[in-house]
Amino acid sequence: MKRLSFFVAAMMTLSAHAANPTNPYSGNYYRLFTPLTFYHSVAQSQLGLQDSQDEMENCVSSALMHVYMKRPDLVSATESDMQESGQLRDDLSAPIKQQVSIVKETAPEPEMLPEADPVEVLVEKPKFWTRKGDGYVQFMQNYVSDNWYKGGESNYAAVAQVVLEANYDNKQRFKWDNKLEMKLGFQTSPSDTVNKFKTNEDLIRLTSKVGLQAINRWYYTLQVQAWTQFYHGLKANNTKVFSDFMSPFNLNAGLGMDYKVEAFNKRLTGTVNMSPIAVNYLYVDRADLAKSFGVKLEDGHTHSLVDFGSQLTANVEWKMNDVVTWKSRLYAYTSYHRALLEWENTFELRVSKYITANLFVFPRLDDSNNPDDELGYWQFKEYSSLGFSYTF
Fold first, then answer.
1. Pairing verdict, β 249-263 and 378-391
2. pLDDT tier for residue 52 given thresholds of 50, 70 and 90
């Protein structure tokens, strides 16, 4: 309120002289808009001790003197106090004027702008297909239970594997995944005087899956799996063939739902397929092996078995860290008359870019075979290996 009273009084005094200022650039105007201070020049001018040639300066001084006389309580400082504190400058003797320079007028813009040069636009076709693969050649120590359904013997051996994938994704709702796995390994046994080489790993497996997205990570899926082996399976010191190419051959088709797995910041990925409606076709080309795989021959002409049931397939990969990776495949099928369960586990230790060590653990349940005295319907396989690997 004090400041407002001073400002009103000052403006009323100045309004009488505002129509004809003689020096509009006087630097004394600031005194009206700063904290009210008692200036010596104001008193000298108004008391006749000093004359000023600037009419506007006289008006400012008159306004300040009026306040000094009428409202001395508004005065917050004196000129002597401000000079001692260094708040007043005495080196400004002339008004500061801004120097304005005139530049040439810019050229007017043309009415018609020139046409832009044509630009080639390259539109790339979306890449719906992704292809990848990996393979390795490794040496290993191998263990096989006595009742393993394909035969084999615990010993030192070598194994090679190639996995190829071609997957289609239209980035909307449709997906088609294809995976081909080929694995073949041989072993030699000093105790075997009949067979120079025997297979300890033998697999050809194709998995094809067509999916239509239902919601989020769920897909309506038709999955087809087919698998057999390259070579015939033998046991040590035995000429009997326990398995062979197309003996057996399995073809499984299931209709159901597929779930896409993503966890631990996408370190754990994979799919889980549940098919409540599934059909399995089992074919055994060698008649002498049909019975061991649950196929009953009729008049020596039937080599196949078709049954209906349900199946579950899970494929996951967990990168525990930058060195250790766990790959797992679980396959379960039941026709409500027989059951088959396979659980493949591979623990991969990456030593360097091209060298890896693997630990392979494979429990299997098949109640179509005769039970073993110790393990029953369970079978077990394990080996560890070290060798070269390559991803492309």
1. unpaired
2. low
